[in-house]
Amino acid sequence: MKYVIAIIKPHRLEPVREALSRLGIEGMTVTEVKGFGRQRGHKEIYRGAEYTVNFLPKVKIEIALDAALLEQAIDSIVSAANTGQIGDGKIFVLDLEDALRIRTSERGTSAL
Amino acid sequence: MKYVIAIIKPHRLEPVREALSRLGIEGMTVTEVKGFGRQRGHKEIYRGAEYTVNFLPKVKIEIALDAALLEQAIDSIVSAANTGQIGDGKIFVLDLEDALRIRTSERGTSAL
Amino acid sequence: MKYVIAIIKPHRLEPVREALSRLGIEGMTVTEVKGFGRQRGHKEIYRGAEYTVNFLPKVKIEIALDAALLEQAIDSIVSAANTGQIGDGKIFVLDLEDALRIRTSERGTSAL
Amino acid sequence: MKRGTAPSALRVVVSACAIVGALVLGGTTPALAQEASRGDTAWVLTATALVLFMTLPGLALFYGGLVRAQNVLSVLMQCAAIACLASLVWLALGYSLAFSSGGALDPLIGGLSKAFLAGVGPDSLTGTLPEPVFFMFQATFAIITPALIVGAFPERVSFATVLLFTALWLVLVYAPVCHWVWGGGWLAGLGAIDFAGGLVVHATAGTSALVFARLLGPRQGFPNELSPPHNPGLTMMGAAMLWVGWFGFNAGSALAADGLAGRAMLVTHISASTASLTWMAIEWSRYGKPSLVGLVTGTIAGLATITPAAGSVGPLGAVIIGAAAAVVCFEGVKIVKNRLRIDDSLDVFAVHGVGGILGTLLLPLLAGLGPLAPGLPEGRSVFGQLGVQAIGVVGVVIWSVVVSALILLAIRAVSRLRAPADAETEGLDLAVHGERGYTL
Amino acid sequence: MKRGTAPSALRVVVSACAIVGALVLGGTTPALAQEASRGDTAWVLTATALVLFMTLPGLALFYGGLVRAQNVLSVLMQCAAIACLASLVWLALGYSLAFSSGGALDPLIGGLSKAFLAGVGPDSLTGTLPEPVFFMFQATFAIITPALIVGAFPERVSFATVLLFTALWLVLVYAPVCHWVWGGGWLAGLGAIDFAGGLVVHATAGTSALVFARLLGPRQGFPNELSPPHNPGLTMMGAAMLWVGWFGFNAGSALAADGLAGRAMLVTHISASTASLTWMAIEWSRYGKPSLVGLVTGTIAGLATITPAAGSVGPLGAVIIGAAAAVVCFEGVKIVKNRLRIDDSLDVFAVHGVGGILGTLLLPLLAGLGPLAPGLPEGRSVFGQLGVQAIGVVGVVIWSVVVSALILLAIRAVSRLRAPADAETEGLDLAVHGERGYTL
Amino acid sequence: MKRGTAPSALRVVVSACAIVGALVLGGTTPALAQEASRGDTAWVLTATALVLFMTLPGLALFYGGLVRAQNVLSVLMQCAAIACLASLVWLALGYSLAFSSGGALDPLIGGLSKAFLAGVGPDSLTGTLPEPVFFMFQATFAIITPALIVGAFPERVSFATVLLFTALWLVLVYAPVCHWVWGGGWLAGLGAIDFAGGLVVHATAGTSALVFARLLGPRQGFPNELSPPHNPGLTMMGAAMLWVGWFGFNAGSALAADGLAGRAMLVTHISASTASLTWMAIEWSRYGKPSLVGLVTGTIAGLATITPAAGSVGPLGAVIIGAAAAVVCFEGVKIVKNRLRIDDSLDVFAVHGVGGILGTLLLPLLAGLGPLAPGLPEGRSVFGQLGVQAIGVVGVVIWSVVVSALILLAIRAVSRLRAPADAETEGLDLAVHGERGYTL
Ligand SMILES: Nc1ncnc2c1ncn2[C@@H]1O[C@H](COP(=O)(O)OP(=O)(O)O)[C@@H](O)[C@H]1O
Ligand SMILES: Nc1ncnc2c1ncn2[C@@H]1O[C@H](COP(=O)(O)OP(=O)(O)O)[C@@H](O)[C@H]1O
Ligand SMILES: Nc1ncnc2c1ncn2[C@@H]1O[C@H](COP(=O)(O)OP(=O)(O)O)[C@@H](O)[C@H]1O
To answer: Of B84, D149, E159, F30, which one's alpha carbon is 20 to 30 angstroms from that of E401?
Structure first.
């Protein structure tokens, strides 16, 4: 099993979710995060004083999935999240040793 | 060492924390997240118009721990977080290569 | 590649970011989290009643990086985040199998 | 405005020559012989503060709570900028067009003799009020009316368009209609009754809002993927301020601290209470959950609907008006959204437009009902008055719709109505105003 | 209410036959021969708006900031719905029961002759006020009093129960007590002084709240695992609005724009200031941290405590009342929570109940103190008056406690007092009203 | 204050012996022979509520929205505590020092004969107002003036220092200046015109704020790493309340419900509107984005600037004052921050200080301009008056700066001005008051 972490632009969350759901991946966990990267933050000006906001609002999606689905899932995310502009985000893949569904104590891929 | 990620219902946080603390696990990091899964979100109706809220508020707990404690910790989480209802959440286990306490620069299990 | 998770005190975020940037690490993802650990939470008193706040506000930094940069990065974080007081936080290191830049579909270290 | 129903106005014979008559008798000429009353002045100064409070911050918060968090500041900004702009336009043109004599054109529009308050001296009176007091009271009406329209276009409108539209609309729609009804124009001549602005305020704003929403087009995601109100507590706070301020709006429209003001306040309050509970009951029975947003929407519907009738009905009439307001406006909301599929985002037409018209038409039917009900002015029949009211509604609605559409088409010809799509996605707060609502 | 202390009332001999006497002399019969005063009317119209503002949104925000974020809307909803419902009950029954003559039962309760304002004409006066103005001013008192009780039951009550309780309570507790004190009932006959509602408003609401909290049971997690106030800024905002509105409440109770109103405003302000600082000082010295929630709790304690005495003391008396309010209510809060272990969640009893009673009893002792102090009405002795005040307190407290308990037991017999436990866990906003307070 | 410009004051000859003259003629002796006016009293009672509303919660919210989320409660707390403390100081000393006769010292300061309102009876009048009404109206000015200074020191000040400074400043700066201008002191004697507090309120607070900010030192991170305003919506809400309340501030300063009050309200409103739009336009053209924080800063600048002139100019003058206010204060903000590099965090000096002084000096130039403009009092020349106004400015500024600095140096000698650096980092809410602003 793999643990996929995708950092994307907030308004691409819905499309990504739909794309994954077409693959049969319904489960995921989403966090609002602040992203730092090549895409620059913005400046706000209040009463003539500049306030630099270095970070950009991003959304982090975490998905535990069967290794067999990995490449398809990556493709789906890329195509739904890609706007072609800097700051579109990243996908990180980690190895997942075990998974467990709390309600039933099922383990492994059947827990996903 | 293992890195355990548990997604649970928000109101189970306190019981889980207490259960883990009985095992001697005091350290953990908690994030408010939005969960998508089999449990469905709800609808809100404002002035006759329906607004679908797809996600559910969940809490993500991250715990770095000694591999020896893993099964006990999983059991504790399951028993404290289980309500028997859909949406109780998941536990994911990743391998943790290293850990370090910033204050003392201790590394490995003694840093936890 | 490695996936580094650092939990630090909120007001050390800026120094840490600057220290990493001096190493050429510009990309990172930051989340506001609640920390539980040895450092105790505080009490608030409203109208004579005590409310215990167990957690402490912390900031979680996630950095995907080339394994070659790992030790330098850890050193930078430690020196920028260390205040010598309990609760300074932790650094966790996980193995990162793959990384991908959504905009270009580059993979591996060139995606970071 | 009491003046529409004041004794001097009643003398105006409802006749074919009503329009000419209005020119001659000038139902609204300030009674110059009178002395200023300190008590009346005290109350109308207070009422002025209350009506300003309705817009700033009342209406702004009411609307601000209903949009996405990324647009809250843009809504507050629109309301504030409209208030400022309307004030200057009122000083330069509006007041004079509404309340000075228009000479031969008087049935249709006032003149420019009072532009910048020219010719108004320290002792000028309007009724028992120093004229600056009357000017200011009316100014707060000229502020809130265009501000109401904000509910039609939030989260996607171009800010420059809002300003341009407001200035033109105030001169071309509000000032004339105000003159027709309260300034001695043709509707005053016909004997139309509009105590505090069912036509002048709510029907003009409500129908213009519908036109605006239609020409502007819907928000991204309308109707199925919108975000719920980001802060219903703000909306409730705003509604509460509107309620309190409405005491100034309606009871202040008596232009005196007397029993008429007291009764107007009373029926206003009863209508608001009844409409709130009725709306709540409808939601409770249909959806199983009575919502705060629903209850306070009922409040506003009840307030808008009683507005034209606040000088003409007793408490029992107010109960009926309140209940009718909730039932009819509730359906109105659904019809606009689901049937017409117009994204009048915060329901300006369904609440204010429908409410103002409903109250205008219910007025003759309920004027005589129950204790404390004053009845219609002497010599008016229920159905005769109903006819006059209906003429008023038709005239005001047509004028508002047509002129608003023309203004918007003109703006669209030279500029754009909508903010760029990117700005809409990102939220207007950051994209247009460079600010964020919450940095918690 | 000035009327309890007005010259005509003073003539009433404190004697065994006081109750009968009250029936005959009718200390509160409106002086029909008088003319309406525009100045007084202007002020009481304003005061009415101010007192409505206390509840909507003042009190709602004050309470709303103190609960969990998941319950903020439910608290605002309860306050708003109570305000609407109380208004209609006041129109239908309350006003008449409180302020019309009850015939043979008059010492205990008024009659129904003024239900729906029957018999009130356009020229009816109460003192120098048109009667609709007096009706509305009193309506805002009938709104805030049951709304105060919201603080006893938030985060767990059944919404239907809130509505049912409010309607019954207003008729069975508020209207009678109001009649006793301000409507010419037995306490007026005895000469009890309650200028603006220490007994009528704060003692009734405060003690009923304690009963409600006791019968309802505590919140999940009481007393050790509760969430802290989710938004103390809202609470401060509400407290500030309550303070400003209280100027209408207390100075409006003079029912005239005169020196009495001015002095009432002054002592109200001084008591609030003193109590705020005293509460702050207590917290600072005990806990090392002066909190905003503490300071504004002191404000409300100071305001509630001066309320009955606002017509009877000078500024020096107000300083003492304010300081006493903070000290006593601060202890009251701790006793209810820690000793009685009743989850009167937002301290309605300890602040309003204790404050209202304290002020009622301090009044005779401080009436003559310092400059601008009017002293007791001629012919009253300090201890005689203290006795009368004590009788008032005992009578009002017993009535409120017993009748509130009976109402709640009756409701419990046919329905439920609490929301389902699940709804409580999830938060009432989403579970009961289908809304969320913040979508940021 | 109307009194500075009242006919009796005009008789005071502008001459070298002005100071002596003031002692003798006592330009501000209340006309004891007059009767109280219910209408005037109604209006000033209302205005008092409005001015309290400006501080609580208006100003508190205005400031609270501009700081970091971790400091919002501390700002609200500072405003509330200052309001309470100022009220008590005003009762004990301030009112008497400002408005009683100071005997031989009267040009400089009043006496203590009215401390705790000693000697004020139930029938004491100030003009047509019962004296307690005048006392309370003035009390609300004594509240807001020190509260304005909060904008200079938020996010880092020691709370105890705030309290100590307020008490001393009120007695040593505010009360004397108030006496000079409105209490019959030397500036009244010279004929300085300050209708509602350009000098007394805004110049004193603004310049003292600058001194405070300078002596206190900047916030951590000033000027480059500050957090943006955490909640501009709160700031707008506060600004709106300030605007509405300012109607009480300026129109209430007529101390009567008359045409002067009406005109004062009118010009206040026009200046605020113009300044808001002007500020918006400047930002729009310079930065491409008109911000809400900018617009409402313009509002406050426009209001502060018209304040001294609200009794002396017509609407055209108000337009000019509003436009000037925005342009000059906008530059002022930048100069203080970028040139002087003083962290007057919320721009008290640049907005209030500069605005108040600007209005004071523009007054003679614009007094005669356009319709409804009253012109200068008879016998005054534009440049003569300008000279007097300039003397007023210089005198008030020097006094405020010097005395404020002395107070702060004294406090620094015995205690600390700043909160501990840790508390500043963590946020004052939790560190000093033990509370958190938002638990969502
Ligand atoms: N090395 C990294 N580790 C973790 N997150 C990263 C890293 N680099 C970038 N990110 C995240 O991805 C987001 C997008 O990265 P950025 O460099 O701005 O653009 P792009 O994705 O086009 O390369 C950042 O805002 C940040 O949240
Ligand atoms: N594959 C997944 N990857 C990451 N998080 C998941 C995944 N599936 C579920 N979750 C998280 O677990 C929560 C519960 O899952 P759900 O399918 O609703 O019920 P259950 O836990 O009973 O199977 C979700 O809300 C989501 O936060
Ligand atoms: N075992 C753990 N797993 C995950 N996070 C932890 C763990 N232990 C501590 N943390 C995080 O690190 C923070 C600091 O830990 P703490 O024990 O308080 O102090 P220190 O870092 O000085 O050892 C905690 O608030 C928590 O967020």
So the answer is: E159
Q: Specify the CATH number for the domain of residue F330.
A: 1.10.3430.10
Residue in chain D closest to B43 (alpha carbons) equals: D228
Q: Residue F47 domain-assigned?
A: no
pLDDT tens for B37-63 read 998 888 899 998 989 888 999 999 999
| Structural domain count of chain E | 1
Residue E334 domain flag:
yes
Confirm if A18 and A104 have CB atoms less than 8 A apart.
no
Q: Does C104 contact ligand 1 (Cβ within 6 A)?
A: no
Q: How far is the CA of E399 from the centre of ligand 3 (A)?
A: 57
* Helix/strand/coil percent split, chain F, to 5: 70, 0, 30
Q: What pLDDT, in 10s, does the model give residues E142-154?
A: 999 999 999 999 9
| D409 within some domain | yes
Average pLDDT over chain D, rounded to whole?
Answer: 93
Sort out which chain A residues have CB atoms less than 8 A from B55's CB and list them: 30
Can you tell me whether residue A107 is helix, strand or coil?
A: strand
Provide the H-helix boundaries in chain A: 13-22, 70-81
Residue pair F63/F75 in contact (Cβ under 8 Å)? The answer is yes
ipTM (interface pTM): 0.95
Q: Is residue E81 part of a domain?
A: yes
Nearest to A33 among C26, C29, C112 (CB): C29
Mutation target to probe the B interface, by most B beta carbons within 10 A, among C2, C93, C97 is: C93
Please tell me if the CB atom of residue A29 comes closer than 6 angstroms to any atom of ligand 2. Answer: yes
Q: What confidence score (pLDDT) does residue F400 get?
A: 98
Determine the pLDDT at residue E224: 87
B84 touches chain D (CB under 8 A): no
Mean pLDDT of D140-149: 98
Using pLDDT thresholds of 50, 70 and 90, give the confidence band for residue D32: very low
Q: Is the dihedral of CA F261, F265, F270, F276 positive or negative?
A: positive
Say whether B103 and C88 touch across the interface (CB within 8 A). Answer: yes
Measured distance CA(C101)–CA(A64) in Å, rounded: 19
Q: Which domain holds residue D311?
A: 58-421
Of the candidates C61, C92, C62, C67, the residue with the CA atom closest to the CA atom of residue C1: C67
Residue C52 confidence (pLDDT) = 87
Q: Does B48 touch chain D (CB under 8 A)?
A: yes
User: Which residues on chain C are in Cβ contact (under 8 Å) with F436?
Assistant: 44
Residues in chain F with CB shorter than 8 Å from the CB of D40 are 39
